[in-house]
Design goal:
mainly alpha, 2 strands, 55% helix, 3% strand, globular, DNA phosphorothioation-associated protein 4, DNA_S_mod_dnd_assoc_4
C-alpha cells in the first residue's frame, strides 16, 4: 500500500524517469521528477492502464513528497484520478489517512502504467523529447480522425 505523504516510483522504471529529466547534462523533456510522474499518470489514465508498482525505487528517484505536487498544482490530478476510479467523493477526505493512501496508490499505479507505455514508445530512441512530441502529435491527429468519422454535425445545415 502507498506510503502516506509521498509518491513512489517502481524500481524497474527509475532509470526511465531519470532519463526523462533535464538535469546533469541530460536533455529530457521534463524539469522535475514530479512533472514526469504527472505526465505518466495522465498517459496511464488516458489509456486506462493501471499497473501495481512491485518493488519501489529507494534512491533516485526517491519517493516524492506530496507537498511538492501540491505546490505545483499537480495534486488536482491525484484527486481527479481517485474520484474517477472510486466514484466516491469521500476519497477526498483530508482527515482520513486511509483515503490519502488510496489516492496515492491509484495515482502511482496510473503513473506506472503510463511509464510502461513510455518505455515501449521510447525504446531505442535517442531524443526522448522529440519522440514524445511525435507520440503526442500522433495521438492528437488519431483522435481528430476518429472524431471526424463519427461527427454527424456536418450534416446539420
Amino acid at each position: 500500500m502507498a506510503e502516506t505523504g509521498r509518491i513512489r516510483v517502481a524500481k524497474d522504471k527509475a532509470e526511465l524517469v531519470k532519463a526523462l529529466i533535464s538535469s546533469d547534462g541530460a536533455t529530457g523533456p521534463f524539469q522535475t521528477f514530479a512533472d514526469a510522474i504527472v505526465f505518466a499518470a495522465a498517459l496511464g489514465a488516458k489509456h486506462n492502464k493501471r499497473v501495481p508498482l512491485g518493488e519501489v525505487s529507494k534512491r533516485e528517484p526517491s519517493p516524492i513528497r506530496l507537498e511538492y505536487f501540491a505546490s505545483m498544482g499537480h495534486d488536482i490530478l491525484i484527486k481527479l484520478l481517485a474520484i474517477n476510479e472510486t466514484k466516491d467523493i469521500k476519497i477526498l477526505s483530508i482527515d482520513e489517512e486511509e483515503y490519502e493512501k488510496q489516492r496515492n496508490q491509484i495515482f502511482e499505479e496510473y503513473a506506472n502504467g503510463g511509464l510502461e507505455i513510455l518505455q515501449n514508445e521510447l525504446h531505442g530512441s535517442v531524443d526522448y523529447s522529440e519522440r514524445i512530441l511525435l507520440f503526442l502529435s500522433y495521438e492528437r491527429t488519431n483522435k481528430e480522425e476518429q472524431d471526424e468519422e463519427f461527427d454527424l454535425t456536418k450534416f446539420l445545415s
